[in-house]
Structures are given as structure tokens and as C-alpha cells.
Amino acid sequence: MKSRRSSSFNAGSTADIAFLLLVFFLLVTTMQSEVGMQRKLPQLSNETPTAPIADHNILPIFVNSKGDLMVNQEYLELDGLRSLVKTFVDNNKLGTCTYCQGDGLENLSDSPKKAVVSITSDRNASYATYISVQNEIAAAYNELRNEMAVREYGVEFDDLKGDVQEIILRSYPMIVSEAQVELGSAVATAP
């Protein structure tokens, strides 16, 4: 009589191989991180606005589906947005702002505390363009705050602490209004 050998498979090393493959794929796989903006929302206020915002205190920025910018009914390249925002915010039309460096032009904001930057973007505009516009606006405000810190206190804004930083933040409050709509063909198409 022949002895029959049972055919068996040694599964002891299979678990080790599966674990090594899992570790390998975890190490070589790249995880895509989301790009976003960190914003501190303003505190809820029970006060209602006493007067409507004057048109000259609003800087309208439109972003169409192709990523083109239109500011004050004129097309603008992204690299010109920062200086335009700085000029608009720091205008000092009323002459009451002691720290402003603007020329007091008639068609720009009364003061930094009344300046509103309004962004309207097409629903089909790319997220990258929207983030770039937001970055340029934030950079404009950061430059204005830094210039005031150097002028008034002799140090960079980031080097200031506590109350002094708050004074500068209140001097240049970043007031941004955002909307997302389907823009009409007159605004949505570049020449």
C-alpha cells in the first residue's frame, strides 16, 4: 500500500508577504493634500449697519470662468491686483486718516476702515484662480500693515506683540465680500 501524501500549502509566510506589500505601498504612495486658506471669521455683531456702503468704498473684482479678472469694468492681470488693492484701501479720501499714505483720490475709498473689497466669481472659475486672487488681496493688506509697523514702530508687523499688533489690525481691517454667481456674457468673456 502506498502512503498518500496530502498536498498542503504553507501559508505561514503569506501573511508576512502581504504585510510587506502593504508597508511598501504605504511608503511609496503619495497622499494629495487639499489646498485651503486659513481665515478667522469676524465675531457676530448685533449691530445693524447704519448706512449703505458708498460705491466708491467698494472695489469690485470679477473672476470669469476662464480665470480673467475684471476690476472697475476693466480687465486686469493678477500681478497688478496687489498694488491696486493697496492704492484703493490706503487712499484717505476724507483726509482724516493720520497713518494713511494715499493720495486722496475722489473715486477710491474714504479710508481703510471703510474700504470693502468685493469678489464675485463665476461658478466655473478655477479654484486655483480664486485662491490666487485671495492671496493677492491678503498680501496687499499684509504689506500695508507691515509698512505701518515699520513707519510707526520701527519693526516688522510680525515682530510686534499684543496690543500694538491689534492697533495695526484695526487700522487696516481686511473687509472682503465674496459671492459666487453665473456671470453674464458681458463680464464672462475677455476681448
From TrEMBL:
Pfam families, sorted: ExbD
Transmembrane segment boundaries: none
This protein's record includes keyword Transit peptide: no
Top-level taxon of the source organism: Bacteria
Cellular location(s): Cell membrane
Keywords, in A-Z order: Cell membrane, Membrane, Protein transport, Transmembrane, Transmembrane helix, Transport
GO CC, one annotated term: plasma membrane
MF annotations from Gene Ontology: transmembrane transporter activity
One example of a Gene Ontology biological process annotation: protein transport
Membrane topology classification: Single-pass membrane protein; Single-pass type II membrane protein
Family per similarity comment: Belongs to the ExbD/TolR family.
Family annotation (PANTHER family): BIOPOLYMER TRANSPORT PROTEIN EXBD-RELATED, EXBD MEMBRANE COMPONENT OF PMF-DRIVEN MACROMOLECULE IMPORT SYSTEM
Protein name, per record: Biopolymer transporter ExbD
Annotated source species: Phaeocystidibacter luteus
